[in-house]
């Protein structure tokens, strides 16, 4: 095992991980698969938009002004045009407008050749096949030239753009049915610990004797199989959900026993298949904590083993070539904190996504329960209040499997006294869960 | 067509739409499909967690104190226990601890029967098969009872909870492989307008003559087929991306011509297949704006036709039984504004999701370009700054196909003078796009 045992701040650790990290590749996909993906190259418009000159309104397309017909006609005064056609949206204009002629036209319809201007219906007066047109109001432009919104050859989207609804709409308007985006980074997810079993679980409890300490089973528990001395591999499901949301393609490696050779072998293979390896458990400093040794055995060079924060203090990071190995804590909420603050930036950078979880100030609606001797991240719920963002720390619970339930944010709390209600703290927003998100009803 | 032509504020319109709206149903899904879904019923723990008493640390499980062996032993002082077993995580303890006996134990391992307490390795001294244990520090509890985190039968998640990574992890830890969530609402998406064609487009331009006004084609445009007087149905792709993100299952209805009977027939069918119908185009007040008439023809009762805001002023809303029909503007950014502010709440409510896009204050980094005579929503980019949220209005562009590119927020601007840089405005956050999101490079 490597000698490195350096302790870093979160920011230093993140910098080490992200140094030189680049998207892992690019792939051509169909427009229908594009939402949420990241452009790997700029988009250049293959054609202009609108592709033809069109009307912005229901009204009349007018040719050159009529010569000598500027006399009053039936009470209305203005220029008199003769109506020679009607052009509906989606139809080809059958005429060319000469001087003194007009065509009734509808919003979005292609303008006939010879169109000089367009006037909205309510500003003109129609009498049979004549249209009487007053002076046009200044500045009113009711026609759009071809290419007035996008010129062919223009760069309309930059590499790195996330394709949301508006960007998808633009691509469709330009007729782009294939787009080159960054490849989804492949994240191999393993959980280490001989106490872990895969769902739906192992049959058979511990032989002999009653179940020490209870193992209370409710009436509905018949569906749950006996686990013996083991627990379900829950970290995999939690991290798979998080990594998928950050754009990763998740490759499951399954739970691994506390056996060094087995882990080294598994991690070697993982580095062939994946761009990044995330493990949970075995990140502590005891003789049964094998992660650092297994990372080294699989060819990794240790970057750090400790980050100065709670929870998530023990995080093993290693690099092998352009692949990263990250050993997160085995405790579920600690694993998630380390995921959000250290692994998510890596996965997002590999996918060409924006990287840093930015912090911003929010006002505490309840006091922090106790001072912390070290920088701490506290599960919380944040929401936009009328006067600004507010944040409530979640109630503390024994153990931790429920610590992060209902959270959408982490409070980034420096070492020192516990701030009280009404004081400002900094928060990291973890998801777009908004103000309506209710805390779970826990009786 | 109905006589109703009432104009409402955004909030009034939204209230009309949401009145009595309920999730459309529930469905049982596998855990792997659960991320991002919404619980349709509370989750009751089928078993306790941890399922067996376990150690929080690497150390020693101790039986009852030894009788008469509290003498100093080799320099160390304390109680002397005899080591009778080693229990690794995941293994069944082979012993029952009697008075004065101990077992070496590892984090997460099941405690032997008879365990009274656990002491971390670093607090004890081992001499061969003896363990010398000093007075335990007060308050230190290094063992977890079965059920100490979750008791069997306890309600751990409320109906309406969004299943994020932490909640998924909890379900996995409890061995729940099937979960009942709200059914995804079915959103039928249609675009009306005879000028629309489906991608990849129609062959053949307008016959005869040169292409009026240009139709500039770039060197790469050979892949784009001629559209004649038509444009691509881009609103469908934009709205499909947005509605999917809000949890809808999208049913495409394709572009519809400006023909009342065709639309009535299509919308009737849509209401059989979908929970909500979204259309774009035809929402204005001219004779070719058929949406209101088509909604009425399809059995809808008009709720409103105008919302006092820009853009998105013309929005047709109708109800037929428990189905809603929403006619959004045809202009792409206006359609998106109306989607986010009126349609998204409907889709989210039908899926049991949190509903209201909450607004919060942010400081303008650039002035709003001009005063607005009416409440306006302005495409913007918001990010959490060191001192709080900041927001920049996006540059205005001709037309609108690019108006929303790069936006992650809307500024909710009341009628009146244009606020300057440094002034506070209210924003609606539309996505979790964070501070690192770069504006597209448009030369």
UniProtKB/TrEMBL annotation, chains A, B:
<dbReference type="Pfam" id="PF03453">
    <property type="entry name" value="MoeA_N"/>
</dbReference>
<dbReference type="InterPro" id="IPR001453">
    <property type="entry name" value="MoaB/Mog_dom"/>
</dbReference>
<comment type="function">
    <text>Catalyzes the insertion of molybdate into adenylated molybdopterin with the concomitant release of AMP.</text>
</comment>
<protein>
    <recommendedName>
        <fullName>Molybdopterin molybdenumtransferase</fullName>
        <ecNumber>2.10.1.1</ecNumber>
    </recommendedName>
</protein>
<keyword id="KW-0500">Molybdenum</keyword>
<keyword id="KW-0501">Molybdenum cofactor biosynthesis</keyword>
<dbReference type="InterPro" id="IPR036425">
    <property type="entry name" value="MoaB/Mog-like_dom_sf"/>
</dbReference>
<dbReference type="GO" id="GO:0046872">
    <property type="term" value="F:metal ion binding"/>
</dbReference>
<comment type="similarity">
    <text>Belongs to the MoeA family.</text>
</comment>
<keyword id="KW-0460">Magnesium</keyword>
<feature type="domain" description="MoaB/Mog">
    <location>
        <begin position="188"/>
        <end position="349"/>
    </location>
</feature>
<dbReference type="InterPro" id="IPR038987">
    <property type="entry name" value="MoeA-like"/>
</dbReference>
<dbReference type="GO" id="GO:0005829">
    <property type="term" value="C:cytosol"/>
</dbReference>
<dbReference type="Pfam" id="PF03454">
    <property type="entry name" value="MoeA_C"/>
</dbReference>
<keyword id="KW-0808">Transferase</keyword>
<dbReference type="GO" id="GO:0061599">
    <property type="term" value="F:molybdopterin molybdotransferase activity"/>
</dbReference>
<dbReference type="GO" id="GO:0006777">
    <property type="term" value="P:Mo-molybdopterin cofactor biosynthetic process"/>
</dbReference>
<comment type="pathway">
    <text>Cofactor biosynthesis; molybdopterin biosynthesis.</text>
</comment>
<dbReference type="InterPro" id="IPR005111">
    <property type="entry name" value="MoeA_C_domain_IV"/>
</dbReference>
<dbReference type="Pfam" id="PF00994">
    <property type="entry name" value="MoCF_biosynth"/>
</dbReference>
<dbReference type="InterPro" id="IPR005110">
    <property type="entry name" value="MoeA_linker/N"/>
</dbReference>
<dbReference type="InterPro" id="IPR036688">
    <property type="entry name" value="MoeA_C_domain_IV_sf"/>
</dbReference>
<dbReference type="InterPro" id="IPR036135">
    <property type="entry name" value="MoeA_linker/N_sf"/>
</dbReference>
<keyword id="KW-0479">Metal-binding</keyword>
């Amino acid at each position: 095992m490597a000698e490195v045992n350096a302790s870093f701040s979160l920011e230093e650790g993140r910098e080490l991980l992200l140094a030189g990290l680049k998207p892992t590749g690019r792939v051509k996909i169909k427009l229908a698969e594009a939402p949420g993906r990241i452009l790997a190259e700029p988009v250049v418009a293959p054609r202009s938009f609108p592709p033809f000159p069109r009307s912005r309104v229901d009204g009349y397309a007018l040719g050159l002004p009529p010569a000598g017909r500027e006399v009053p006609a039936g009470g209305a005064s203005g220029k008199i045009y003769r109506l020679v056609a009607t052009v509906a949206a989606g139809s080809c204009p059958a005429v060319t407008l000469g001087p003194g002629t007009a065509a009734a036209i509808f919003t979005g319809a292609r303008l006939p050749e010879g169109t000089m201007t367009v006037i909205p219906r309510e500003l003109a007066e129609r009498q049979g096949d004549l249209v009487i047109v007053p002076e046009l109001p200044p500045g009113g432009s009711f026609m759009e030239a071809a290419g007035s919104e996008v010129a062919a050859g223009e760069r309309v989207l930059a590499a790195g753009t996330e394709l949301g609804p508006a960007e998808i709409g633009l691509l469709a308007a330009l007729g782009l049915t294939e787009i080159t985006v960054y490849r989804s980074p492949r994240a191999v997810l393993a959980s280490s610990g001989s106490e872990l079993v895969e769902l739906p679980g192992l049959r058979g409890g511990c032989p002999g004797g009653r179940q020490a300490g209870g193992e209370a089973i409710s009436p509905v528990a018949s569906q749950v199989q006996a686990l013996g001395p083991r627990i379900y591999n829950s970290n995999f499901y939690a991290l798979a959900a998080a990594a998928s949301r950050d754009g990763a393609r998740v490759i499951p490696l399954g739970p691994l026993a506390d056996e060094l050779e087995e882990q080294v072998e598994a991690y070697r293979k993982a580095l062939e298949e994946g761009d990044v390896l995330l493990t949970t458990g075995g990140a502590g400093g005891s003789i049964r904590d094998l992660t650092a040794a297994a990372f080294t055995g699989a060819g990794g060079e240790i970057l750090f083993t400790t980050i100065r924060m709670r929870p998530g203090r023990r995080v093993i990071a290693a690099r092998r070539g352009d692949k990263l190995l990250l050993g997160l804590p085995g405790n579920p909420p600690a694993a998630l904190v380390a995921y959000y603050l250290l692994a998510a930036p890596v996965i997002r950078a590999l996918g060409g996504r924006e990287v840093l979880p930015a912090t911003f100030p929010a006002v505490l609606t309840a006091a922090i329960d106790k001072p912390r001797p070290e920088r701490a991240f506290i599960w919380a719920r944040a929401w936009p209040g009328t006067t600004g963002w507010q944040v409530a720390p979640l109630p503390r619970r024994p153990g931790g499997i429920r610590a992060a339930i209902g959270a959408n944010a982490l409070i980034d709390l420096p070492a020192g006294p516990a701030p009280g209600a009404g004081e400002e703290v900094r928060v990291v927003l973890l998801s777009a869960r908004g103000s309506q998100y209710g805390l779970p009803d826990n009786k």
